[in-house]
Design goal:
There is one protein chain. The protein has a 10-stranded mixed sheet, with helices on one face. Strands 3-7-9-8-10-11-12 form a 7-stranded mixed sheet, covered by helices on one side. It is α/β, with parallel strands linked by helices and 392 residues long. It has 8 helices and 17 strands. The longest helix has 17 residues. The N and C termini lie far apart (52 Å). Helices cover 20% and strands 27% of the residues. The N terminus is likely disordered. The protein has 3 domains: 139 residues, Severin, CATH 3.40.20.10; 133 residues, Severin, CATH 3.40.20; 104 residues, Severin, CATH 3.40.20.10.
Length: 392
């Protein structure tokens, strides 16, 4: 009988929960190393051996390869694992660097989120513990994650629900699909465009973005009066994709056009809808995160007990501030990094996610800090994004 047989889906995952904090003990590492040797997802002859991108979705506690043609498309009810392998070094001394992201949809289940976190650590074991690990939240992804996908799209539904909002039998059910297209600002100068399914109501409209409304028999494009040329161009690509399988009329309307009220009406709005449209974006940029002073903490068990102490606050942080014998937590506001020294004890290294999430919970009282991207690096295998974080 398969090991997952008989298991049932638990409640929808609340990212504020700490169910993944116990992952990472020393015995966990040994178990995962042995398990990784027999995990089909990792043993395809390419993972860890070739530069490139790999995406898997968690389905019934298993790691299932995501079709390459769907790379960049995610469902809010699912959890995913993404591996980015890249070459570092030169002049014949090249090696592969690895970044692992476990992405949690806003409506993913508890078991899917836990499996994604568990399997991420297992994949790191398969890669000899050299990978940078990232925890990604749908509502506030890291710049590094967004940069991997030129065509990032987030839709409603997922493997648990077995549905999408698009009904293939338009005769029995009217299609109403509303996609919001907006610019995602990056702190490192690599702005992207995101396509995100939103509630099909006029209150979802925003004058700074472009919206595509698919009613089944016709597609409407509503261009907010402050939208950018990039968002308009992206909307044209989205419409092209939607019309590949069906030949239907498409009408593009600017918010300032007299007929733009037609789209508002189709979304349930009335003639007295406001002229100014504002709605919160479903995905926020790390550049909009609440500003906190830069802080560096040391995690050490040199005294016989684990301690967590402030090293620097509001000061310039340099590479020399990190000691190979300990684990450090770096809070740069838009992201939280954990640096694991090679000489740190097994207990210190194993506690990184526990410490990071405990730290985040202390910040939750006055902000949405729980959405802050978390990442961990190992001394000697730091990712370029980590070095950028300490240089800023």
């Amino acid at each position: 009988m398969p090991p997952h047989e008989g298991l049932t889906h638990l409640k929808e995952y609340d990212i504020k929960d700490s169910n993944v904090e116990l992952i990472g003990t020393e015995i966990d590492h040994r178990v995962k190393h042995n398990s990784a040797e027999t995990e089909p997802a990792w043993n395809d002859g390419k993972v860890g051996l070739q530069a490139g991108l790999h995406v898997w979705r968690i389905e019934d506690f298993e790691v299932i390869p995501w079709p390459k043609e769907k790379y960049g498309q995610f469902f809010d009810g699912d959890s995913y694992i993404v591996l980015h392998s890249y070459k570092v070094g030169k002049d014949g001394n090249e090696k592969l660097g690895h970044e692992i992201f476990f992405w949690l949809g806003s409506k993913t289940s508890q078991d899917e989120a836990g499996t994604a976190a568990y399997k991420t650590v297992e994949l790191d074991e398969f890669l000899q513990g050299s990978a940078t690990q990232h925890r990604e939240i749908q509502q506030q992804p890291s710049d590094e994650f967004v940069a991997l996908f030129p065509r990032l799209s987030i839709r409603a539904g997922g493997v648990r629900s077995g549905f999408t909002h698009v009904d293939t039998d338009a005769k029995t059910k009217e299609i109403t699909l509303l996609l919001r297209i907006f610019k995602h600002l990056s702190a490192v100068g690599r702005d992207s465009i995101i396509v995100h399914e939103v509630e099909p109501t006029w209150q979802s409209l925003d004058e700074e973005d472009v919206f595509v409304l698919d009613k089944g028999d016709k597609i409407w494009v509503w261009q907010g009066k402050k939208c950018s040329p990039m968002e308009k161009a992206k909307a044209a690509q989205v419409v092209n994709d939607l019309t590949l399988a069906k030949h239907i009329d498409v009408e593009v309307l600017a918010q300032t056009d007299s007929r733009s009220h037609v789209v508002i009406g189709l979304l349930g709005g009335k003639s007295n809808a406001p002229d100014a449209f504002r709605s919160c974006r479903p995905v926020s940029s790390t550049t909009t995160c609440s500003s906190r002073p830069r802080r560096l903490f040391r995690l050490s068990d040199a005294s016989g007990q684990l301690s967590f102490d402030v090293v620097k606050e509001g000061q310039t942080i340099r590479r020399t501030d990190f000691d190979t014998n300990d684990v450090f937590l770096l809070d740069v506001g838009r992201a939280i990094w954990v640096w694991k020294g090679l000489g740190a004890s097994a207990a210190e290294r194993a506690m990184w996610l526990n410490v990071a999430q405990s730290y985040v919970r202390q910040l939750q009282g006055t902000s949405d800090a729980y959405l802050t991207p978390l990442a961990a690096v190992v001394e000697g295998n730091e990712s370029p994004s980590f070095f950028k974080a300490i240089e800023v």
